[in-house]
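Agenda item 2: 2-acetamido-2-deoxy-beta-D-glucopyranose complex prediction
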Amino acid sequence: MARLFDPTRLQRRWQLIVLTAILGIIVFLFFSFERPPPRRRAADTLPISQLGVSLHNQGTAGRLIKPKDIKVIGLVFFGRKDRVRILRCYLERNLAVNGGWLDEVHWVRNTDTKDDVDYLHKLIASNPSYKQIEIKETGFIGYGLAWSTLEEGAIYVKIDDDVVFMADDAVSRVVSTKLAHPECLVVAANMINSPLMGWVHYHMGATHPYLPELINPEDVKPELAPDRGKRPETAKRTDWKYTQHPYWAGPDDYFFSFEQEPPTMRHRWLRLATNAENQVRELKRTPISDAEYKTWGNSVQSWAIAAQQHYSFLENLYEDQLDLYQFSPKAQAWITDYQRLSINFIAINATEILSHLPMDTVDEEWLTVSLPKKIGKSVAVDTHALAVHFSFGGQGDVQTTDLLGRYLDYALENACMAPAPGSKDMKGSYYI
Ligand SMILES: *[C@@H]1O[C@H](CO)[C@@H](O)[C@H](O)[C@H]1NC(C)=O
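Presented output:
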């Protein structure tokens, strides 16, 4: 006989109903509450931006926004016209009046050469955002004095006059990182040709096998004989694209050391043709394979190590692979405490500097070693902020290559133009 009433069955059914109801409520609550949007990491996930008008325009989405209440000033120690005619194009793109982050650029005259000084005066007169900082002395003493002219409250981006390329977001990135990390006294850009970062770039696989072109001694024209110490004539514009130049040709056992002297004036370095079989061996016979991670090591002394890094950079620029220099989006900045770091492109807070003046040693040592150590702060390299530094004092022979002419070519083609009004992606008119 079937049982009409089964209390255990009823109990089970109730259990089932209650359980379903609870689950329903949980699901309902889960979907009805507004959840915060997934976390975005500032602009980090984007590749290093190329110039907005370059061949390889990567767009401007996700650009960093400049905080309204912060004044950003560029600080340039001016020395050489043939460098600054390249730098000025990048600076002008970065002026606040052109949509960039630099409200002003302050120029410190650091030369007495008439030709160069005349150029500086014309340059300053050409743009209302430019201002000359008058220092009584030039050279070493002038450098020290210049730091006392900082404006309280401003963020400064100190840029060397021989910075010959900067990514469009280099300024905004070093400034943003400085603002977000008050524990860092100095935030430096990730420089191509930097005694510390050059080693990092090589070991990350961003430096390629290049060697100086082999020229028959009989074919060297007298005016191209290497003459060390002589100031070479102004660089001629030369095609910056490595694909427009031949591959290197020479004996298989040819080796070029980082200590060797330049073969001729205005020579070029050429790419070694590589494949999976020979690429390791080819790189090992080029100067970069001996580069050191050391403030006063060969990376700051050797013109050849510098040259190879420059030619490799121009290849990476052409191949649209500047992210070879950049750490992962989640990576922290590269900390250099307390090894002296070159200050070719750095963001600092004027208030912090002014409150600790005067400097008791040369500015670079003070900013990246003595002061941060004394006040317990860090010095960091933002690997996502990319710029190129032409040469250090001991690398003067970099000017025997055609590199300055190539950087000039790239700048003229991609950077030296006024932005077209109303359109970010349209070429404008040339400044020069
Ligand atoms: C600069 O440093 C001062 C002193 O530490 C601080 O009060 C100020 O907020 C900093 N300025 C910016 C823009 O971060």
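Discussion summary: Residues 7-32 form the longest helix (26 residues).
Owner for follow-up: CH.
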